Input
Amino acid sequence: MPKLSDTMEEGTILRWLKKEGDTITAGEVIAEVETDKADMELEATASGTLAAIEVKEGESAAVGAVLARVEGGDGARREEKPRRDDDGGGVRAEEARPSKERRRDAEGEGDEPATRRGDERGGAARDREAGAVKSSPSARQLAEEHGIDLGEVRGSGPGGRIVKDDVAGAIERRRAPARGRAAEEGREAGGRAAGEVREPRGERDDDRARAPRPTREDRPARAGVPVAERHALSRMRRSIAKRMTESFRDVPHFAVTTEIDMSEAVRLKEALKTSGAYVTAPTYTHMVLRATALALRKHPRLNASYRDDAVDVHADVNLGMAVAVEDGLIVPILRHVDELGLEEIAAEARRLAEQAAQGRFASADLSGGTFTVSNLGMFDIDSFTAVINPPQAGILAVGAIKERAVVRSGQVVVARTMRVTLSCDHRVVDGVVASKFLEDLKQLLESPIVLVVHGR
Output
């Protein structure tokens, strides 16, 4: 079992795409694995015959555990587990990546992502089994467990792809009539106990499925609050729950907020879009990422981590970009962002967003972050305070750009402003450092021409 993210401790085999006795080739996708971050494809590290599957579908295994055994063409028996770099720092990307074709075609937004092409290459067997219905591995697994025909489920994911929530909805719709009958029978029993007169059961069979939810007065008295539904946490949500609890418990947070005049940034964004100067038109998020990277280079204390009563200041600026997925939040990493231009950041961020939509990443895309940016501006949120992603020392929460009244030279005028909040680990930085960082971030975004200049 390869370690595919910083926080991964174990993974679950969702599906074996090969069976014992099949011939496999090194680099071929042979299984799908659910990690704490995403569903990943497992590639064979050796060619030969799949002699034995040690971990069955639905079973979990710790990182480093043997998943299968392969008999090579030379007669040697080889374990199907990842080789590590000399320093033991993780799985080599070429041996534990979700897809061999990770490169994004930079010819334009409308081009088909390389991830999808790799998915078609590695997923032909899955398509045959699922009737060529586009669906995520977790959706297929849940559908199999509950006997749901994916051909009858409407997908809400990219390109009509069926995700786990779509299957869960189909399961709930199938259960609704049964719940209605149970509720009706419960009310009938309660009514008889209370001496109420009820109409004959046979006259009401057709209406059971449409029975209204019982009101508070209808429900029989019981200890505690009734539970309408109970949902087991996915591996991703369990990881989020664990890490956020640890963060709030162990990291002394403090937050500072500032308001940034984005009027010039708005004009720059529109000018770049209409000019066609960039293949990938930058968004406000890309501008914030670029400005954050430059500000971190000037304030390296925030590009740091608290470890074992010491502060590690990182040499690289690797920004985490919080992205919402079907069952939670994932933070893919843009590496060496301070060395990238605005267009390069836009292209890389878009590639990672496409990977998130597909639910498949390379291990390098999910590890090694030194600071995180979380943007909820697209949801019309004025401002919010984000929780630090340990062991990072800070996270920037970005709100919406809105027209607001501001005072300039004693006059009230309308400006397009944005509020950002920086959450900090007080063990690493103090308020003065955080304030100076926001001061420089504000200056960069209010004079955004600096953001289009590439270089150190």
User: Anything to note?
Assistant: The first strand starts at residue 10 and ends at 16. The longest helix spans residues 164-193. The CA atoms of residues 305 and 311 lie 6 Å apart.
